[in-house]
Amino acid sequence: MDRKKLYLIFITLCGVFLRFFHLTKKCFWCDEFLAISLSRIPSFSDMVRWIIKNDAHPPLFYSVIRGVFQFTQSEFGLRLIPFLFGAGAVFIFYLLLKEREENHLLSLALFSFSPAAILWSQTVKSYSTLTFFSLLSLFMFLKYSKTGRPRDVTLWIISSLITLYLHNYGVIIILGEVIILLMYREKISLKLFLIPSIVIFILYLPYLAGPLFSQIAFVRASPHSVVNPVFRLGYTFFYFIFGETLSPLNFKFVIPGIMLFLIFFIKGLFVKKDILNNFSIVVLITGIIIIFFIKSTIPQNLIHLQPFFFIIVASGIGSVKKQWEKIFLSVLTFLFLIPPLYYYYRQDSLQYHDVSKLIPHRKICRTIANEERQGEAIIITEARERSFSEFFPPYSPWDWYYKGHLPIIEVSPEGANNLQKEIEEIYNRYKGFWLILNYGSSGIQWNENVKDFFLKAKSVKIREMRLIKNYSFLDVLKGKGRKEYYFIEVYHFVKEL
What pTM did the predictor assign? Predict the structure, then answer.
């Protein structure tokens, strides 16, 4: 076995390990609870109807998670699916690259160590699975174009349909393959793909003819926090490199990293191209067009295009003539992924873009269960999920993780008409109180009002936990300055005797 192949295998194994490392360290995130909630709906048909009406994605991934949910509800059990496909995506990418004459160790290394790809391989969302089947679809497409074997075309049809039914943006991959067929029609037989393409279209037609339009209507009616396409394009470029675990204000890494990747991405667009380079350019251009025309598009919607972004960047560096410069630039480019990867595993809240992923529900609930006293109550300011109230009672992550005996009372802007009156009634009913204040969901002033009531009441504070230091990047952009606060605060009060 030559040295190049050994390096490829080593990098692949590193990518698999990083996707498994600390798989269960974090508690379920709010978006992961969507998959849990859908799995709790008693009827499968009701789940599919709810998804078509209220969600922007096809039901396939949620259907798989629903099946797993019948056997396990643990972080490890439910995250095993995204991990397996995230790890599998690294392996398929390796197979895709090793057929090329060019040395693409860098492409594989960037994808294997990508903070964004690792994050979504450890989260109960469809993105790592989508990336796997996108790469598999292309791999089988290229293989079938060379062999024409029935087995290869069968796998291409299956992987393409799964890609389409996993995410609406899976169509980018199929569209890219169609464009490549037209570009290489002198080398690839169009007749070879005619019947398989018709089969894919017919089997996708039931979704294309109805549910897709319902979901498009849902997306159009949904509010969007950032609609400027230039900003979203810039953030997507940032996201493909650093993921969401490096602060945009961390200029010592962000500025040189962005410049380095941008220079060689542009250079990679103009080097001598093979079929994989051309495919990468086609799907990336399609992604850019979608960003400008569909304002709901966010970076993770396009994360299955990230491997092709790395191919273009690596091609740009590969065009450098001097070998020592090429090696130096390859190592330097790779090293820019290490800081966000370090912050990801360290769970540095000042670097995370969405610190709600870091809420230690399990730790807080265990603390309360170990120290609770009879006659106490838990007060949460985070609203319970009510979207599924026709199927089961509203619940929150605190209801999911808490295993003690105290009642959990919601005091949120969504559920409380008169805050002062409701808190007074709760205060008169119980002897002690655990406050779990979520400053990310209920706003600063609401949480301060709840906390101030107990600080001023005839009660004694016997425990205080302030967790997850955070700041608003949007406030910084608006010129309001960087004001740090704690995302979660926990207090234990008991009434004075």
Answer: 0.94
